[in-house]
Prior knowledge:
The protein has helices spanning 20-25, 27-30, 64-72, 104-114, 119-133, 148-159, 178-193, 205-211, 229-239; strands at 2-12, 37-48, 53-57, 79-84, 88-91, 166-170, 197-201, 214-219, 222-227. By secondary structure, it is α/β, with parallel strands linked by helices.
Amino acid sequence: MITAENVWKSYPVNRDxxxxxxxxxxxxxxxxxxxxxxxxxxxxxxSVKKGECLGVIGKNGAGKSTLLSLLLGTxxxxxxxxxxxxxxxxxxxxxxxxxxxxxxxENLVMNGILLGLTRKEALARQDAIIDxxxxxxxxxxxxxxxxxxxxxxxxxxxxxxxxxxxxxxxxILSVGDEFFQKKSGDAITGLIKRGTTTVLVSHNMESxxxxxxxxxxxxxxxxxxxxxxxxxxxxxxxxxxxxV
Length: 244
C-alpha cells in the first residue's frame, strides 16, 4: 500500500533580507549567495502492507509531520520515490474542513462527502456516526458551541465510517476522555482487521504499543529504528526520547 524509496524532503531556510547599510558593508557575503535548505527527511526507506498499522515516534521536529504531509499528498518528495496506493483518509487536525456556523449534523454530512462518501451514503450513515460520537444531545447545535474534545469525537466518528483504505492519524487519539480514547483505539483495531492500512503519529507510547504492529523512530529526519513496538519504543526512551 505504501512504499518509500530513498525519500528526501527539504525546505528553504528563511533568512531576513539585509538592510541597505548591512548590504553595502557585507556585499561580498550576499552577492551570488544561494538560499540554504533544511532537510526535514533524509533517505527514508520503508513499506507498509495492507492492513498493517505503522506507528511513527520521535521528538518534535523529527520529521513526523513532514512525513504525514508526503503520505497525504499535500507535499512532494524532493528526492526519491513515494508510492501510496489507496484512498487516504486524514485525521491530522481537529475540525479540519468543518464550518463553525453549521450544526454538527450538517458538518458530519459535509465532512463525509469531503472524505469520499456520496451525499446519499453520508446521510445513510449519520445515525451510526452520531451514535459512535456520543454527541446526540449536541448534534443539531452550531459547531462553534463545541469543545475541542467534541470536535475530535465528531471528526474521528466521521472518518471511521467512511471505509478508509489508508488512515493517517496525527495525535488525535490523545484528545478526549479515557472512555473515548479506548473506543477510538478499538475502532482503529477493527478497521485494521478489516484491511485498513494505518499510519499513527503520536507521543503517546501506550497508544502506539497497543495499536501498532510496527514502529519507526524518526530523529532529525532519519529512521533510527524500525521494528516491533516494544523494542523500538524501549530504544527510543532509553537513547533519545526523554524530551518528547
